[in-house]
């Protein structure tokens, strides 16, 4: 039976990046993915690299914003990780950082923006609030109704179709054994190691039983199910999201656009398509009373019109045909903070999910690898530990 140092479960951005980090540090790594690499959230997302607090973090008031701001040290680390990743991998990932603008249209929104920027500066994020002529000179494509914007020069985008496959290739170059179409169905602690039972996934795969000293769960919306295999309950919830894309057009907007008062993300890809998202929900599909995680959520009409409302702040979008809308799923934790670290009372079991795990994924992976190899993480991940949900676990 194969025995490795670490088995990583999940071939999204988190799993591939963690496998890469561990393998390049010399570990023997097994990466197991039930479908294809990048098949789920990591390949379906908006590709926004947003380092400011998002709308969902400020919409519930100042206390909630202060709680979410505790993750800002991770955001600062992510700025550095994305600046370096293409050089480290030796291939393009579509990373471009021309800055991000978080818009405010009303006096109340401007006040939220000012408080948000003050909070972010306390954590060391470089953010400037622009208004009037300064803002419209930087972003002439914005509607005149936009009064102010929080500008973070480091924000931008990466191409979700390129990043995770590049990380997987790098992991394999460092010796990671990758099995796709291989679904983990059981996790048992034996004498000082973990035994992983698997079966061939929908795309066909090797199946079989594997041994590992440590296991990293990087299963996205399947995290609760995977943790359950080790008799651990983690409050990780799936949420459906909606994205839309326009036809290609000439370079229109170099920035990542978000809004401080409503759901919105807008950016233009290198190919000219404008992507619109920002957290508009999609309806999870239920079967026999349980959410079916294998099926993409259903589109909600209000979310499509929500996406289209992006034209209110970028009027040029009115002239562009919408060519595609899709849905995907991501994970949320009850406190909106990441879930990252060692699982208490399960020696050698680690987990990572939640938060903006595209933006923060490279950082989570570096920190996870550090914890697996040395038991330490810098910056500290104590605030994101699964231990905060210890009351759910009796054993
Ligand atoms: C529409 C949409 C837009 C988004 N936009 C952004 C954005 O702009 N910026 C941002 O930061 N974040 C964004 N996100 C969130 C981001 O995409 C996710 O947080 C991130 O991709 C999660 O990566 P992951 O590797 O944890 O999960 P995933 O990419 O879902 O990977 C998990 C993998 O685990 C595998 N797996 C699960 N169970 C098993 C098993 N039993 N055996 C083997 N394999 C298993 C799955 O098949 C899957 O491939 C968005 C998400 C969506 C859906």
UniProtKB/TrEMBL annotation:
Chain ranges of the FAD dependent oxidoreductase domain: 5-369
Name recorded for this polypeptide: FAD-dependent oxidoreductase
PANTHER family: SARCOSINE DEHYDROGENASE-RELATED
Signal peptide range: none
Pfam families: DAO
Gene3D superfamilies associated with the record: D-Amino Acid Oxidase, subunit A, domain 2 (3.30.9.10), FAD/NAD(P)-binding domain (3.50.50.60)
Domain of life: Bacteria
Native source organism of the sequence: Micromonospora echinofusca
């Amino acid at each position: 039976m194969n025995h490795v140092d670490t088995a990583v479960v999940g071939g999204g951005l988190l799993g591939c990046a963690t496998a890469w980090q561990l393998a390049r540090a010399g570990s023997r790594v097994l990466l197991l993915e039930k479908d294809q690499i990048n098949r789920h959230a990591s390949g379906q997302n908006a590709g926004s690299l947003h380092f400011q607090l998002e709308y969902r973090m400020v919409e519930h008031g100042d206390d909630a914003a202060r709680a979410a701001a505790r993750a800002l040290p991770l955001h600062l680390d992510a700025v550095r990780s994305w600046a370096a990743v293409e050089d480290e991998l030796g291939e393009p990932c579509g990373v471009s950082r021309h800055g991000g603008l978080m818009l405010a249209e009303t006096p109340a929104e401007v006040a939220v923006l000012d408080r948000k920027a003050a909070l972010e500066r306390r954590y060391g994020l470089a953010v400037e609030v622009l208004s009037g002529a300064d803002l419209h000179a930087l972003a002439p494509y914005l509607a005149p109704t936009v009064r102010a914007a929080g500008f973070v020069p480091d924000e931008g985008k990466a191409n979700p179709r390129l990043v995770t496959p590049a990380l997987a290739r790098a992991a394999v170059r460092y010796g990671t054994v990758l099995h796709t179409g291989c679904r983990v169905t059981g996790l048992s602690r034996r004498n000082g190691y973990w035994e992983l039972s698997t079966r061939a996934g929908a795309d066909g795969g090797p199946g079989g039983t594997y041994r590992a000293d440590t296991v990293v769960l990087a299963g996205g919306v399947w995290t609760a199910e995977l943790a359950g295999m080790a008799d651990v309950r983690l409050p990780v919830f799936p949420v459906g999201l909606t994205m839309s894309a326009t036809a290609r057009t000439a370079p229109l907007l170099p920035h990542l656009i978000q809004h401080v008062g409503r759901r919105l993300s807008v950016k233009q890809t290198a190919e000219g398509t404008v992507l619109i998202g920002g957290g508009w929900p999609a309806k999870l599909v239920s079967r026999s009373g349980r959410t079916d995680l294998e099926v993409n959520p259903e589109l909600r009409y209000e979310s499509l019109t929500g996406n289209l409302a992006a034209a209110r702040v970028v009027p040029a979008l009115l002239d562009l045909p919408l060519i595609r809308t899709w849905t995907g799923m991501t994970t949320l934790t009850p406190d909106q903070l990441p879930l990252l670290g060692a699982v208490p009372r399960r020696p050698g079991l680690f987990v990572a999910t939640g938060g903006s795990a595209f933006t923060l994924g490279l950082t989570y992976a570096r920190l996870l690898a550090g914890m697996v190899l040395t038991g330490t993480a810098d910056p500290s991940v104590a605030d994101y530990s699964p231990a905060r949900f210890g009351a759910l676990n009796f054993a």
